[in-house]
Amino acid sequence: MAEQTQGVTVVEHALAAHYLTTLRDRTTDMPAFRSAMRGLSLILGAEATRDLPLVRRPVDTPLETMEAGRLMADTLFLVSVLRAGEGLLEGLRALVPEARIGHVGLYRDPASLKPVHYYEHMPPGLDRGLVLVVDPMLATGSSAAAAVDRVKQHGGRRIRLLSVIAAPEGVATMRAQHPEVTIFTAALDRGLDDHGYIRPGLGDAGDRYFGTK
Ligand code: URA
Asked: 199 alpha carbon to ligand 1 midpoint, in Å?
């Protein structure tokens, strides 16, 4: 189940809530954090790909032949915003091994909080399918909006954003710059603090996932 308002789909699922609480908990260690991130990415990914087009073809079961749906080639693309996007990407890759994957490297300048673009490698054919941009923390929204800009530069037209937690500021940025992009998230939190962290949030998603602090 999911609640949808103003282009934001907040996924409502008991397991999603459970995984999110594990991610929020400051006592969660790195392996448990990774495991909860993976679980949540499977649920967010399932919700965001609910309406992927299928082609119906005959399949032989051990007992008879039937018509059944399969994903078409180049239906789904994943674009990870480095580096925290990698946390969500792992589960999504497992969910849809057919997906082609792109990367955008953006880091947030600590003074201006503006995104600095340092890397990009996109698969061909982004215009042919649904592109899921994955960025776990939609804070100011400037990195996510910049990543969506890059996807559009490469021809992407049907784009969705997957975030674990969204702040109202980030949602507003996305609405202003990319109003057609639906955001799939597990929570809409209160807002940003003076350092650009989402409150109550979960801290630094990249550091907690990679163990860099
Ligand atoms: N990035 C994070 O990892 N956490 C936040 O709260 C905001 C941006």
From this structure: 9
Give a yes or no: residue 193 inside a domain.
yes
Which of 50, 52, 45 is closest to 89 using CA atoms?
45
d(CA 194, CA 155): 36
Specify the residue with its C-alpha closest to ligand 1, atom 4. 204
Q: Containing domain of residue 200, as a range? A: 2-51+73-210
- 100, two tokens: 């082609």
Which atom of ligand 1 lies at the shortest distance from residue 208's CA?
Answer: 3
Whole-number pLDDT of residue 1: 60
Q: Which atom of ligand 1 is nearest to the CA of 202?
A: 6
**Closest residue (by CA) to atom 3 of ligand 1?**
204
* pLDDT tens by residue, 50-107: 999 999 999 999 999 999 999 998 899 999 999 999 999 999 999 999 999 999 998 8
User: Which pTM value belongs to this model?
Assistant: 0.94
Report if residue 66 sits inside a domain.
no
Number of domains, the chain: 1
Tell me the CA–centroid distance for residue 139 and ligand 1, in Å: 6
Residue 128 lies in a domain: yes
For residue 56, is it within any domain? no
Model pLDDT for residues 154-168, shown as the tens digit of each residue? 999 999 999 999 999
Q: Give the pocket of ligand 1 (CB within 6 Å).
A: 84, 137, 139, 196-198, 201, 204-206
Quick one: angle between helices 14-24 and 30-48, nearest 10?
Answer: 140
Calculate helix-pair angle for 85-95, 30-48, nearest 10 degrees.
Answer: 60
Q: How far is the CA of 5 from the centre of ligand 1 (A)?
A: 23
